Amino acid sequence: DPVTAPRPHPYTIAHRGLSAHAPENTLAAVRAAQRIGCQWVELDVQLLGDGTPVIWHDNGVRRCSNSRGKLIKLDLAKAKTLDVGSWFSDAFRGERMATLEEMLELIGELGLGLNLELKVNRGRDAQALVDAALPMALKALPAKQLVVSSFNSQALEAARDLQPDVDLLRLGLLYEKPPRQWLTEAERLKAYSLHVDWRRLKEKRAREIKEAGYQLLCYTANDPVAFARLWPWGVDGVISDDPSLFTYHLPMPSE
Ligand code: G3P
Ligand code: MG
Fold first, then answer.
1. What residue owns the CA closest to ligand 1's atom 10?
2. Which N-terminal stretch is annotated as signal sequence (predicted)?
3. Hey, what long-range contacts does 205-211 have (CB within 8 A, 24 or more apart)?
4. Tell me: the pLDDT tens digits for 107-124?
5. Minimum-distance ligand to the CA of 239?
């Protein structure tokens, strides 16, 4: 029973931290997630121009800061001058971009699980990202508190090369829609999970994934009523901007 069976991770993961209620991918968003009882968070990591891994989603800083331009144009000193909170609300004015190192420390302190997404935006180097970010994450968190995912197969390959042991590194394959050859890909990378866009998931594919023994997570799910028809397919969890929507709305057989 997908609703009541014990799970290797809680069935909700806070997308970019508690991004419905705090500026995404910040320390504040992770603290907020923990405060409402989330046990897992999903965060994006990429590199600044000086090679520092930071928690950030976009190629540029315009949407989520008081500045503009490309992330790759910033070094750490400059990145730390940006206000990454007030775009969301005045309550978060003065929030600073988090380095991966700072974020891992907080997650360790709070005892959370982390789904770290290796975000390879256009023109960026997958190998450099893995080399800088992955050893740091593996060192900071126990293997059971970490799932590393990516849309980018080169990043996933580099990650698996760096840590071939499936018990020491759980890899998640991210897909907008799992392609026909998803199983070949999953086997090659010795994947732990598939993370798919719930709006494009079909029952047949979901059941295939579960029958093959993989964890199946869905992003970005913010509508528990619309989502309810997917649970019976064996979905293991949702990545949500506000997991409390799901905590207080357990899917009922009638839905
Ligand atoms: O990891 C799930 C989800 O975060 C993937 O899409 O664009 O929000 O990073 P995005
Ligand atoms: Mg992401």
1. 57
2. none
3. 205/178, 206/230, 206/233, 206/234, 206/235, 207/233, 207/234, 208/183, 209/178, 209/182, 209/234, 210/234
4. 999 999 999 999 999 999
5. 1
